[in-house]
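Incident log, structure service

09:12 report received: a user says their structure output differs between two submissions of the same chain.
09:20 pulled the input from the user's history:
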Amino acid sequence: MTMSGVVGDGTVTRAELAAQRIAERARTAASGARLGTKSELRQLCGVSVGTFNEALRLLQSRGVVAVRPGPRGGLFVAEQSPIVRLGNSVLALDADAASVADAVRIRDALDPLVTIDAVDHSSPVAVARYREQVAAMRAATEALDAVGFLRANWRLHTLIAEVNPSPMLRSIYTTLLDIVEGHTIAVRAVEEQPLAEVMQERCQLHADLVEAIAAGDADEVARLAAAHSVKPNRDTDR
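09:34 re-ran on a clean worker, output below:
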């Protein structure tokens, strides 16, 4: 969701750069081809284990690679369905700021569909996971940790999308989230409203949204989803 009061700086993270490098290698290889071991590819990218694991998460979520364990395992080019190919065609546009802004706009339009569907498809376990991210958002709000707030925010929306019964909607929505997240590593306050106030408001909205999903209150979820999409300042981040 967009959080009024913070903006991305447009910088591509090291994890995203590593993911792009491996994806480029995958594009020139046959489906099912072995790309190398995790160690080999991490050394190729020149990144830390943590950064490589994040890049691997991005690649797997986009359906670019598959990981196989064992002595003959490693990273392999994934079999790509038409849905995955659609997602990757969007990802090919994510290197410029205009495309990232477009990803935000499209994700905003899809957000009510994803959120309202969660009413019928969220198990008690899923709701517990949503609440964990709301708690993380509260902790970040108290610490005035805007980046931590956004990470928990993105994770919450990813979890909500994961229960959606539509493979196409899940794929497109999570792809758009990856684009926005991959280009946001810093935030700043908008002068018209203190950052602490913005974070408190958005945290409460998310908390109310999760509780409405838990209660199965579709009307309240729809109302909150509409409020969630209201953006006083369009130059904002997730």
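09:41 both user submissions now match this output. Likely a transient worker issue. Closing.
09:42 reviewer note: The first helix runs from residue 14 to 27. Strands lie at 34-36, 65-68, 74-77.
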